[in-house]
Amino acid sequence: MPDKIKISLVVLAGRDRENLKRFLASLVQVTELPHEVVVVFDVQHHGTPDPLPTISGCEVVGLKFEGDKRQPQMRNVGLKASTGDFIWFVDDDVSLDPNSIEQLMLLLKDIRDTGKIGAISGRIVEPPSFDVRRLSRPIYLSLFRGAVGWFNYDTFSFPKDKFQLVKGTSGTLYPIVPFVQGTSMVFRKCYLDEIGGFDEDLGVGYASFEDSEPCFAMHRKGWLTIFCGDFVLTHHKLPRIGGNGRGYDDYQYSSYLVRNYCISLLKNKYPSFTLALTYFSVFCVVHVVRVAYYNLKNRHIINSVAILWSSLICVLNGVKMGVSAGREAKWKRLNSAV
């Protein structure tokens, strides 16, 4: 009889203290406990870490992180401290469904011996921030829009006919997707360790792509990312740690979005080096128009030339930052926690 799979649940805490309390209240209601819970506190924004509950049969530990809105670094701290076979990363602004870990355990048993699978995305229940009917597929890398993901699907409604599938030991078919979302993502720990965890080069600005980028790195190893809607959490969609928002009216956000997209694709040559350059180049051209259109439409600014020029400059700054950071890192992924 194989040993029971150990799940490490890693939580990033850095928002209002009530969020962590709500998460912990949902945790004690689950039908099956993880092997351990690791809470990584962003001390700068959370303050002195809260006392954590004692849960019978589950070790709960709190770790301090001294930094400034560094999601990849925080995840690497949690990765280094974790001892499970699989790590489920979540944020503190979520609530777990009571059977979420039980369902995740069933999934992991089904794919444990399928060595090709390195990452898993589950169902994220949240209100849509856009018209999801416009999506050609729920999770994909768009030539024009970059990483597009809508994860609020159950197993039965996910359109498997639009994706390649991988079979678990039970015969269940799981759709292969290009990336996960940081709100809820599971990694096979030994694979995440092997690629070097999360790329800390992406821990700036809104830290765009810091969650999906490890899937690009795993792709180079031949490891797959799948979707399974059987393990579920509710995302309350609060502002990111530190209050960072994202919007095309924020030129700095757009610059860092371009920067991190450059790093994510080109460091990992994802899906290939030629396609990485193609995806990134087309995205940059379209993003100039996208940012300019958004600002002209929503900010009621008459001087369209100035808006177009500002949009072009913010994208070019992002390209410059991305290429400079890539060169400085010698196009290698960075992890100070290993």
What's the story with the biggest beta sheet?
8 strands, mixed
Provide the CATH topology of the largest domain. Spore Coat Polysaccharide Biosynthesis Protein SpsA, Chain A
User: How much helicity do the residues have?
Assistant: 25-40%
Give the overall silhouette. Answer: globular
H/I helix tally: 9
Order of helices and strands: EHEHEHEEHEEEEEEHHEHHH
The CA-CA distance between the termini, in Å, is: 33 Å
Q: What count of structural domains?
A: 2
Q: Residue ranges: pLDDT <50 for 5 or more in a row?
A: none
Could you characterize the architecture of this molecule?
The protein is an alpha/beta fold and about 350 residues long. The chain has 2 domains: about 5-240, Spore Coat Polysaccharide Biosynthesis Protein SpsA, Chain A (Alpha-Beta Complex); about 250-330, no CATH class. The chain has 9 helices and 12 strands. Helix 7 (about 250-270) packs antiparallel against helix 8. The relative contact order is 0.14.
List keywords for this structure.
alpha/beta, Spore Coat Polysaccharide Biosynthesis Protein SpsA, Chain A, 8-stranded mixed beta sheet, 9 helices
